[in-house]
Amino acid sequence: YTDTGLFLDQTNTRAMVMENARGRKVLNLFCYTSSFSVYAAAGGAESVVSVDLSNVYSQWSRRNLDANGFLDTGKYSVVTMDASAFLDEALEKGDKYDLVIFDPPAFSNSHKAEDFDVQKDYLGFLSRINMLLTDGGAVIFSENLQGFRFEKGRLGPYFKVREITGEVHAQGFSKKRKSCRAW
Q1: Helix axes 35-42, 11-19, angle to 10 degrees
Q2: 91-123: string of b/e by CB count within 10 Å (b at 16+)?
Q3: Spatial contact of 69 and 10, defined as CB atoms under 8 Å apart
Q4: pLDDT digits 0-9 by tens, 42-58
Q5: In which region does residue 51 sit, left (phi positive, over 0), alpha (psi from -120 to 50) or beta (all else)?
Q6: What per-residue confidence (pLDDT) applies to 134?
Q7: 146: buried, middle or exposed (CB in 10 Å: 19+, 13-18, 0-12)?
Q8: What residues are paired with 133 via a beta bridge?
Q9: Are the C-beta atoms of residues 25 and 45 closer than 8 Å to each other?
Q10: Per-residue pLDDT tens over the stretch 40-98
Q11: pLDDT tens digit string along 110-169?
């Protein structure tokens, strides 16, 4: 097993981020190694904030951004912080983003933060993310938990949700398994 820091099943989703990033303020939650952030920066994002709880992945993120020429830490920042705490602080400060990438792990039980279970916690995260969006802003939410149930009706009438799994399905990955889904 070699961890490359890059999930191949997200190839087309990253391309979608790049195509939609020009001039936008982008937030990448649970950024891992910041591949989505690199694509957003390459697509001409005005700024990109990458958030991950792990010191190891935050360092890897910074190296990936630097290696791709995105050296300006004021424009391309990496924040080592719990995503939930980051959202709370961003809401308190009144921060706004045009594009938010929400690609969380299925589960996390780090000693640094409260346990996270995507099936249980995604609605609360999406509600808080929505409050950070500019008018016309968008969220790209992807999840690899097999059997994940997106209950879009529970988000209320203010959310416009469209599944894009078919549009971003990467060539060579089984459509039967439905492991990576995106909205």
Answers
A1: 30
A2: eeeeeebbbbbbbbeeebeeeeeeebebeebbe
A3: no
A4: 999 999 999 999 999 99
A5: beta
A6: 98
A7: exposed
A8: 97
A9: yes
A10: 999 999 999 999 999 999 999 999 999 999 999 999 999 999 999 999 999 999 999 99
A11: 767 778 888 999 999 999 999 999 999 999 999 988 889 898 888 877 788 899 888 887
The CA distance from 151 to 73, in Å, is 37
User: Which residue is it, tokens 């990033």?
Assistant: 21
Q: Are 26 and 47 in contact (CB under 8 A)?
A: yes
Per-residue DSSP letter, 170: P
Tokens matching residue 47: 């700024």
Please compute, for residue 146, the number of CA atoms within 13 A of its CA located in the half-sphere on the CB side: 6
Which single residue is written with the structure tokens 């089984």?
174
